[in-house]
Amino acid sequence: MVSHALTAVDLVKTYPGARRGPGVRALDGLTFSVPEGVVLGLLGPNGAGKSTTVKILTTLSRADSGTALVAGYDVNREQDQVRHVIGYVPQKASSDPMATGLENLVLSGRIHGLSRSTATSRARDLLERFSLTEQAARQVKTYSGGQQRRLDVALGLVHRPKVLFLDEPTTGLDPEARADLWAEVRLLAGGEGLTVLLTTHYLEEADRLADQLAIVDHGKIVAEGTPEGLKAELRGDTVQVELVEADADGSVRGLLAGLPGIREIVVEGNVLRARVDRGATAVPAVLGALEEKAIPVGAVTVSRPSLDDVYLSYTGRSFQAAEEQVA
Ligand SMILES: Nc1ncnc2c1ncn2[C@@H]1O[C@H](COP(=O)(O)OP(=O)(O)OP(=O)(O)O)[C@@H](O)[C@H]1O
Question: How the protein sits in the membrane (predicted)?
């Protein structure tokens, strides 16, 4: 039997609304589980409920209803035990910028009850592990964004947790620093049997890093599986057409909906995306139909389904549109 490091069942959380307005239902019956040693990506646009989920699982917030177990402990009834077995790396840096990397790690170890010598040797191991030995004696405020983030992750690991929570770990990092952190996280789960729950709103991050994905939308999990499995469920190709002008009167969708071999069509601004049986036959048909109505086309691409298509097929809107809705 697979044992689960994390189980959340039917979590509901409503925040009070501003000025006695209606409350915000951040979680609306969220249910998922994560086997031990797996990196689970909780993927969703801004405001989907990812941080609220993490706060409940790390005992920082309470659900209105529902249950959750972390490494077998109940987040409502066994909060101390839960805190003991988890590491939490919040969205915002948790280190003291005026202290050195070494000092931050030793202090964290001491807070977790390690002796000074054990905390120091653990700190030195983690600095080495996260390629921060050279920076160990420098104040954290002098670190690059990538170095600060690696230190944040190291801080979450000082007390050897069983489950590590990474809330939007690479937001604000440049592509190189992001790739470095991805490599570190992969090693954590692969070699050390740690279970990792990371939240992200980067489709590429979810695709590259997560063994398993749970896609969150409006406080619910709408799809679960491996990134490859979720994409493979969508047969056929994706055709994307950039129109020179936005489809102001909404006529383009109707024009293409009747063509053979074309399934879902979404038009957002001047970008049209269609899921099709075969890209090679759909492209000439789509372009022919647009040309007949004298609708000018800027560019066309055909691709295999991406996680964006997975999101689209479960929620009816593209990931980018969902992000913009919230922004
Ligand atoms: N303390 C709060 N009071 C009121 N509403 C809140 C509070 N915290 C979160 N919300 C709302 O709950 C919903 C879910 O927020 P949450 O932060 O969990 O989403 P998220 O998926 O983590 O988004 P992000 O990626 O932007 O952090 C949003 O509509 C948000 O505005």
Answer: Peripheral membrane protein
Q: What are the pLDDT digits (tens) for 281-326?
A: 889 999 999 999 888 899 999 988 888 888 888 888 878 777 777 6
DSSP assignments along 54-105, one per residue: HHHHTTSS--SEEEEEETTEETTT-HHHHHHHEEEE-SS--S-TTSBHHHHH
pTM, two decimals, is: 0.85
Cα–Cα separations (whole angstroms), residue 56 to 17, 46, 101? 19, 18, 29
Ligand 1 contacts CB of residue 34 (under 6 A): no
> Which ipTM score applies to this complex?
0.94
- Residue 2 has a CB neighbour count (10 Å cut-off) of 7
| Structural domain boundaries enclosing 299 | 235-304
Closest C-alpha to ligand 1, atom 31? 47
Which atom of ligand 1 lies closest to the CA of 91?
27
Tens of pLDDT, residue by residue over 216-239, are: 999 999 999 999 999 888 888 889
- Report the CATH number that the domain containing residue 208 is assigned in CATH: 3.40.50.300
Give the distance (Å) from ligand 1 centre to CA of residue 137: 37
In a domain, 323, yes or no: no
